[in-house]
Design a protein that fits this description.
229 residues; alpha+beta; two-stranded parallel sheet; 30% helix; binds glutamic acid
Length: 229
């Protein structure tokens, strides 16, 4: 795999039928890959097994092809970064999570909040979680057991990434220009591993983009804040 070339991606979640917003985003992703003589990778973001249905997966392929989209790597085509369905990539997420846990970047959270339940999905328009008040942040920072060990004792907790309060996260969005978000103000500690041992969207999407050597992310504007996360 040539890692110096442009690598873009299309990353739909088959939790429903694709809509015009997907068509627009993926069309731009394809244009960008073509302009840069690069590769377009298709990733099936089917992490949320309860909401991802077989019919939606079938329709997703049909619709993307009908719309004229073409990809060079994907679940149906294979490639150097196989597998391309998130439901088959647990080992990658687990490795990424263990790195964060070993580095002390995460802590167990016993709060049963809506954002924990929603964490498998990308937070689109109007779905961004409220800033986490930090209830479990200091109380449980000393826990070092693995999720399995902890869950055997108490199956109710998830793992949150601890943001560096006050830190400015900046990046260049080629559509909206220079972006700046302040940790602790614009977004708070977020769930990266769920109580039922499933990685959250925020961890999976980044682990995959790194592992698949994605050089540019084209996504809906409502995911700008997730880019900062
Ligand atoms: N799979 C996510 C969704 O369809 C978006 C992924 C991303 O671009 O980060 O909502």
């Amino acid at each position: 795999m040539d890692t110096t070339c442009y690598r873009g991606r299309m990353a739909p979640s088959p939790t429903g039928y694709l809509h015009l917003g997907h068509a627009r985003t993926f069309w731009v992703a394809q244009q960008r890959a073509r302009q840069n003589a690069g590769a377009l990778i298709f990733r099936n973001e089917d992490l949320d097994s309860a909401r991802c249905k077989k019919d939606f997966v079938t329709a997703m392929y049909e619709d993307l092809r009908w719309f004229g989209l073409e990809w060079s790597e994907g679940p149906d085509r294979g490639g150097a970064c196989s597998p391309y369905s998130q439901s088959e990539r647990y080992a990658f997420y687990r490795t990424a999570f263990e790195k964060l846990r070993a580095g002390g970047f995460v802590y167990p959270c016993f709060c049963s909040r809506r954002d924990v339940l929603r964490s498998l999905q990308a937070p689109h328009q109007g779905e961004d979680e409220p800033i986490y008040p930090g209830t479990c942040r200091e109380r449980f920072h000393f826990l070092t057991a693995s999720p399995e060990e902890q869950n055997a004792k108490d199956p109710r907790f998830s793992w949150r990434f601890r943001v560096n309060d006050g830190e400015t996260i900046s990046f260049l969005d080629k559509n909206f220009g220079s972006q700046k978000f302040v940790a602790g103000k614009d977004f708070g500690d977020f769930v990266i591993w769920r109580h039922d041992n499933i990685p959250a969207y925020q961890l999976a999407v980044v682990a995959d983009d790194i592992e698949m050597k994605i050089s540019e992310v084209v996504r809906g504007a409502d995911l700008l804040l997730s880019t900062a996360r």
